[in-house]
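retry 2 of 3: previous attempt timed out while embedding PMT. Reduced batch size to 1 and resubmitted. Inputs unchanged:
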Amino acid sequence: MNGAKKIVLGVTGGVAAYKAPELARLLKKGGLDVQVVMTRAAERFVAPLALRCVTGNAVLTADWDAQTDPYDHLFVTRGASAALIAPATANFLAKMAHGAADDLLTTTILAARCPVYVAPSMNPAMLNNPAVRENIRILEKRGINVVPPEVGEMADGEFGEGRLPSIEYLASLMMKAAGVAGDLAGRRVLVTAGPTVEPIDAARFISNRSSGKMGAALAGAARDRGADVTLIHGPVTARLPEGVRRVSVRTAVEMLDAVTSRFSDCDMLIMAAAVADFRPARPSAGKIKKGDQSPTLALEPNPDILEAVAKIKGGRVVVGFAAETENLIKNGRDKMAAKNMDVICVNDVGGEDSGFDSDYNEVTILCRGEEPLPLRRADKPSVANRILDVAVKFLSAPVA
Ligand code: PMT
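retry 2 succeeded.
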């Protein structure tokens, strides 16, 4: 042992078990000592050797004879900050709810005195079975921390609730439980996402292209790094992360109010929203009738949110975006200076499957006084973390 805080990671036999080595690696990278306990079914999805390689610790499996100590099930959680079962199958939840003790992991959890977390992961039909729901309720009543599964695509292609939450989120929960702070712990981060919509009449509007995926990824990444996150979003199609405060707006003026009223309380503002620069000058309260003449739409400029907060910026970190197709660096630098940003992420929105709507993005990060940092095209959560790696350097030291 190296003095690191210990976490017990229980892995049970669901398909999401393939994510366990990556989760264990993140926990280890976060400075934790990770002790893995696996069920026999889990071993069919992921090899104990993989978990041993990433944790540096021997993995405890269902094979009692292979254990060095016959009392491992009693000792393994001693001194642990928390135990996390991820993924937790329906079978394992049932065993836990009813106190079964038929393998090393069930007995380990029965003997645990540390906080226990379970991350159920299964097909939506199984999750919604009354027996499974009841078992989850029993566990919650007993003080077990149930991490709600996410909505999304299952391994079998079905869509619904039952996905294992992101391993970054699970890792951040364990870091918190162990009292190990992420680099945004104690910081308040405001993120904007998605488009704004500007009414033409009761039925029509003008808007910008944006799914909200980039902003949602930034909010999730900031949350995983320990921040208290408020996500101000227009009408988005992206799935929004759990564990962040959400504020829904429609127009640029509503987004301006939502940002400026919270700005003085934040440490960092990240403007990933695609705010409409113009709005119809005279929106009609009713629906404009289709006539012989095509109506002419008069537009007027919307307020610029970043320009508004630039005046009251103080020591807060401001990160903006620019969607560009040419002269990326020059246009980005000009916008950064004009709006008093610390960091600007210039999206190349001219490429295939990148930027707007896509799950991927290709950005160059520009910041005050430094060379441009071009990032390879990557999934938006990875891009979000690279942006935060740069942005955190601009935070002033926390007030003691
Ligand atoms: O939502 P996705 O589908 O995931 O797509 C992500 C994205 C491409 C929309 C996102 O990464 C992005 O680039 N957002 C900003 C796009 C944009 O509006 O760029 P801009 O050059 O018009 O604005 C520059 C900056 O000023 C942006 O940070 C913007 O939020 C901000 N702005 C713009 C207009 C306005 N009235 N007020 C603002 O604060």
